[in-house]
């Protein structure tokens, strides 16, 4: 069967559009024969009633899913009206209206319109169809990747390859990306695409290739987090579980490396790519946390300041993503959960600013009494009762904390007999009764 891209709803929309143009001033026998030959060429049933339904140009613009296919549709309509050799005003106006609705341009619709073609010219043209224009200009697909969906047709020599700013175009042959084009208007020739020429032995004429666009601008803002708690080893307490969450945005910095990593054999969906990049960010962040140098006090100080933690881990995450051709456009740590006994209160400059703004907003309310000294004293007593001084620096800390967040001194010691954790001042073990000397 001849290669063609007219299948499913695309084919039906295409056929309805051809019928709509041909019937705008009445179908003659030559146009009927041309339409029937087209249906046979693309494998559609010969049922005129199926195509005589109302034709919606707006729906056609959505269904014909590339600029090349929309241009091809307008050219096919142009061939259809040339079959009878008489271009009526109604046909000319219909072509002009369709071109405007599909954002193709009037020149494509009206160029070389004079002249007469045979009824089988349209079917023959479809059979020999080659791709002469490629671009990714569909704003309904703003994701990471887009593969030109008409690889059933070869790429025409001299065809326009339009790469918009913020994009790159990879040319794939048998799972290998052999050429990469930057933003600009390129033409498909062996000189412009030397990798394709070598891979296909291409010296001229039409050539088969997969065309894959990459968006190089920042992605949408995505959430990231640790799938499982990070078990960070500490001197005093052993492994400490940490859960961390935040947001990030990434961009493709090395399109060739990105394509080789994610699109060699098949094209992942945007959701698949979002998930894979999320897991990469979380995995490299965990590696960065495990590699943080310094003693326990230094580590805990970092965990309390999310801005400092971000600065300390960012280089490792960036380096990890660069292996897949990615770079971070934005990286934020928004929340960290650590065991309560550490007494940590992780925060960031953004959180502190929001808290300050909220406090100022509350204080500025006209119905708020700014002087309430007595009710505020009661919670203070409760808070003081839940604190005790650190054994190292004498600063107040939670009574159940096992490590000082300020000086790093451990607040517990293991029993020499059974290993049970005890306060530093304990003289006997509360578990086995052994003296602690």
Walkthrough of the structure:
The protein has helices at 8-22, 29-42, 48-51, 57-63, 67-82, 89-101, 106-110, 121-127, 194-200, 255-262, 270-290, 296-304, 306-322, 349-363, 373-385, and strands spanning 131-135, 145-147, 155-163, 167-173, 176-181, 184-187, 210-215, 222-225, 230-234, 238-252, 326-337, 387-389, 396-398, 412-414, 421-423. It is of the alpha+beta class. Strand 12 (387-389) and strand 13 (396-398) form a beta hairpin. Helix 1 runs parallel beside helix 5 (67-82) and helix 11 (270-290) packs across helix 13. The protein is elongated and about 110 Å long.
Instruction: Estimate the global geometry from the Cα principal axes.
Output: elongated
Q: How far do the termini sit from each other?
A: 92 Å
Helices and strands, in N-to-C order?
Answer: HHHHHHHHEEEEEEHEEEEHHHHEHHEEEE
Question: How would you state the average pLDDT, rounded?
Answer: 84
**Biggest sheet details:** 4 strands, antiparallel
Going by CATH, the homologous superfamily of the largest domain would be Band 7 domain
**Tally of separate domains:** 4
